[in-house]
Amino acid sequence: MNTVLENIKKRRSIRKYKEMQIEQEKIEAIIEAGLYAPSGHNAQPWHFTVLQNKEIIDQISAGTKEALKDCETPIFRRMARNESFHILYDAPTVIVVSGKKEGAYSMKADLGAATQNMLLAAESLGVSTCWIGLVVEYFKGEEKEKRNEEMGVPEGYEVQYAVTLGYSSLEGSPKPHARKENTVNYIK
Ligand SMILES: Cc1cc2nc3c(=O)[nH]c(=O)nc-3n(C[C@H](O)[C@H](O)[C@H](O)COP(=O)(O)O)c2cc1C
To answer: Whose CA is nearest to atom 30 of ligand 1?
Structure first.
């Protein structure tokens, strides 16, 4: 199997990281992979914030939990009320992914393509990741403007996802999930 296919099949969401930081050249290669994603009308409607400040990473986790603690979804409510749960899994690096709200033909799909490119690039470099959707909650609400500004999110953009990155502290690599059946048909 070629290495692209191998990395696609090997990648798993990892939620336990070592403290050691990822090398700068790996971060740059991962970001570059995001920048090379396809986008509708070549809009490239993305912005990436690379966060490596533990205090700010912890603050985002705490603020997201605060926003979720009374939400309607029981699993999110439980996570938010669990004192030891960290929304960003104490990762040493987090990439916050924002997208241009107006004018982008298919912003969420474009950001999805960029995010998956980054997950696969990281996998190929031995860096573990987890795609995080819950962080959007931190960037809504009363403090929205201040929080977006602190992240350097450009005017007219909004945060959609984050990616946690680091070296896995799990013993061994988790096996891929079983795939659902009957999700493909051919017409010839
Ligand atoms: C759009 C999106 C949002 C996600 N948000 C979260 C999240 O907030 N927290 C989390 O732990 N995992 C999150 N995940 C990871 C999924 O839970 C994970 O991809 C799924 O369980 C399949 O497992 P795998 O990635 O190991 O194959 C998200 C994945 C996607 C694609």
So the answer is: 131
Q: What residue numbers bound the domain in which 7 lies?
A: 3-166
pLDDT of residue 119: 98
In a domain, 54, yes or no: yes
Q: What is the pLDDT of residue 170?
A: 97
Residue 127 covered by a domain: yes
177 Cβ inside 6 Å of ligand 1: yes
Q: Specify if 31 maps to a domain.
A: yes
Q: Which of 91, 96, 159, 84 is nearest to 129 (CA)?
A: 91
Q: Is 172 in the pocket of ligand 1 (CB under 6 A)?
A: no
Report if residue 180 sits inside a domain.
Answer: no
Q: How confident is the model at residue 103 (pLDDT cuts 50, 70, 90)?
A: confident
Domain count of the fold of the chain: 1
Ligand 1 atom closest to 176 (CA): 27
Verify whether ligand 1 is closer than 6 Å to residue 132 (CB atom).
Answer: yes
Mean pLDDT, rounded, for 152-156? 97
Question: What are 166's two structure tokens?
Answer: 């680091």
pLDDT of amino acid 141: 85
Contacts of 96 (CB under 8 A, 6+ apart): 48, 49, 51, 135, 151, 153, 159, 161, 162
Check pocket membership of 88 for ligand 1, CB cut-off 6 A.
Answer: no
Residue 95, domain CATH: 3.40.109.10
- Tell me the residue length of the chain: 188
Measured in Å, residue 132 CA sits from the centre of ligand 1 at 6
